[in-house]
Amino acid sequence: MTSVPAMSAAAQQLDRLQDDVGALLARLVDAESRWKPWIDSASPDNHCSATNLVHYWALCQADLHDVERRLTEFGLSSLSHSTAHIRQTLLLLSAAIAAMRGHGWIPAADAALPDRNADDLLGLVGTGTRIARIDCAHDDATAWKALAAKARTAAAATGDTCLISLDLGGTKLRTGPLQPGPQVVRLRPTRNAHGQVVAAGRGWLTSAKRPSRPPEPGLVTLPVDAKWLAHRAEGDELLLRDTRGSKRRLLLAAAAPGGFVVSTEKTTYLGTGTRLKAGKKDSTKLGELPAVEQSIPLAAGDVVRLTRDCTPAPVDDDQAPRIGCTLPEVFGNAAVGQRVFFDDIVGGRVIAVDARGLDVRIDRPPHGTAKMRAAMAISLPDTDLPVSALTDKDLADLAAAVELADIVQLSFVRAAAEVKRVFKELDRLGDHELGVVLKIEPSLTDDQRAQLLLTALRRRRVGVIIAPGDSALETLHWCEAAHLPVIDDID
């Protein structure tokens, strides 16, 4: 009797991999069944994207570390690179494993890619196209129309395209103000590794009452008396003592319409009221300079107090750091142990709550320090706040968006219901072309992300803003799975 040779270890591993990939494909089918109503509600143009997003959700529910490792050992593609075309990647992997087992190459059928052509993307953001963003938290529809008209006129004059984006005000959940810093600016020369000046520090000397735009970007504006300025000439030198008492000179290096570019080869600190001397009896004082933006440095283990009081908080008073919170509902609903994030950069957990505020122990970033500033977006993913990201005013402002904008932006979206409200109002207004961009809350669950993005795909032109922070890459993967264009928020 002839004995059958034992199957090699490699063949056994390939058989196991084939079964595992088959099980993952079965997961995709189950997921499509579970999410079928959501997939069916997507725009026809986005049906493929909605299906792939559901496939991504299915993979997120499985522990893929072992499968990933074994695929890599055989030189096969990692599933982490398959986000945009999950089913097709699994079918190709299955075919490759079958070929390695000696069963021949059986190529998978081509997967249909989303029909998102250049015109669609141009209608949303456009490669290289400038976008004029109008914040609906300020002014009114009349002012927005004027701003939009100016932007389009300027674009036409230069031959460029300029899309108009209206950013809905939304519910304001942000840190309160900090006390302003000193009204001081710094002119600093650039030095090489030997300490030699290779570029002078520069500023823009202009009229305080009618300031002119600097002739080049990055120049600090130095406002002075217009009559005194009129007697100056290119090449003049101004003598001064800076805010540290150091003697300094400013050279009027170049004349330009409305003022002079000044330069210095020594670091110079200028403050409101600093006296500039062109001669013994020919001097003036610098006008109002912007206050230095203050911040609170925080490291892991520090405790910061969020307060109902939104008066400007001190920064250098040797007391425990505190800052206001603009939404009173936070204090009646947040509980000990819940997470709090600030711009998804600083984060921690609530350790105490009382009538006046709550204390947050910082655990993000885990190393080094981060700066807490005024007007940072606050996110409480574990707290059930009785407020919506969308206000009645936002719904009313959608009418202006339909009339004058190409894009409307909604920030701090937490639930699919909020997206549905926007779409319902746009349908009522008879609009189906306005691009909708969502800035979604960080730290949502997989189900929450899937529901929110599947709802977004009901509209043909939709995108997502991704804010910097620890969850940015994760959000990017979800958007890639949904075939959604993304915008980096670099404010």
Automatic annotation (TrEMBL):
SUPFAM superfamilies: Phosphoenolpyruvate/pyruvate domain
Protein keywords: ATP-binding, Coiled coil, Glycolysis, Kinase, Magnesium, Metal-binding, Nucleotide-binding, Pyruvate, Transferase
InterPro entries: Pyr_Knase (IPR001697), Pyrv/PenolPyrv_kinase-like_dom (IPR015813), Pyrv_kinase-like_dom_sf (IPR040442), Pyrv_Knase_brl (IPR015793), Pyrv_Knase_insert_dom_sf (IPR015806)
Pathway of action: Carbohydrate degradation; glycolysis; pyruvate from D-glyceraldehyde 3-phosphate: step 5/5
Record flagged with keyword Lipid biosynthesis: no
Enzyme Commission number, as recorded: 2.7.1.40
Top-level EC class as recorded in UniProt: transferase
Molecular function in Gene Ontology: ATP binding; kinase activity; magnesium ion binding; potassium ion binding; pyruvate kinase activity
Coiled coil start-end: 7-34
Domain Pyruvate kinase barrel per the UniProt entry, residue ranges: 293-448
Family: Belongs to the pyruvate kinase family.
Protein name: pyruvate kinase
Protein source organism: Mycolicibacterium sphagni
